[in-house]
Amino acid sequence: MAFHLTRYVNDSSVRNVEPGGTFTLGSTNSTLYTGEIDYTNIPSGAIGYWTIPLNTISVQSTPIALSGSASYAAIDTGTTLLGGPSDVVAQIYSKIPGSAPGSGNYEGYYTYPCSTDVSVSLTFGTSNQSWPISPADFRLVAISDDTCVGALFTLQSSGSGSTPSWIIGDTFLKNVYSVFRASPASVGFAQLSEVALGMNGANSPVPTPTLGTPAATVTSTSTSGSSRCLPGSIAISVILSMVTIVGSICAT
């Protein structure tokens, strides 16, 4: 399955219905990305989340290397922001002049001067491909004329049990075309095409949902009262118009 998520930077002109992006099940949409899809395999034993190693985080051109299980990152379209271990998050913000830990309602977050364009990029696994995050996406909200809150927060459960140390959400995923592959289990990213980038911003036309042709026939063999998840053989492209899709597609 694959996702392209749009960005809006002018809330004052947002309509009741806006194109939120495209979700493609069973294939990829080649009009929404360019070049090759760069896949990173899910490590053995990390099955349960779409988890891949986060190799390096670069902030203001300074790289911060990660390694081992502490680098495991869940790639999650259902998470809005980015979360990570408190020590590494503090290290990242230390590279941003004027940043400071938040307090009160912003405890666990950091503030920084709104006049600063924060440059952050991520690399995964053994790939040398660096994926940048737009400064507009890193800037979560302005709490005064000159103070903004960053989209990277301290993940309280980092490193405990089987929970990945990092959660990589839409702050990052809006900047790439993301692909979740079942076999071999892996997550891939690709550069957004001009078509995809053209959907950003308010007043973009709202597209019509489309249903692709099934790639194979699926026959349910479940007994009454039980359910089985389908093996990912149906190609469906759904236009996301302010809709959150959660869970699995199963046959009862």
TrEMBL record:
GO molecular-function term, one example from the UniProt record: aspartic-type endopeptidase activity
InterPro entries with a match to the protein in the record: Aspartic_peptidase_A1, Pepsin-like_dom, PEPTIDASE_A1, Peptidase_aspartic_dom_sf
Domain Peptidase A1: 1-190
Superkingdom of the organism of origin: Eukaryota
Gene3D superfamilies per record: Acid Proteases
PROSITE patterns, per the entry: PEPTIDASE_A1 (PS51767)
GO BP annotations, alphabetical order: proteolysis
Family to which the UniProt record says this protein belongs: Belongs to the peptidase A1 family.
Protein name: Peptidase A1 domain-containing protein
Organism (species): Hermanssonia centrifuga
Organism ancestry: Eukaryota, Fungi, Dikarya, Basidiomycota, Agaricomycotina
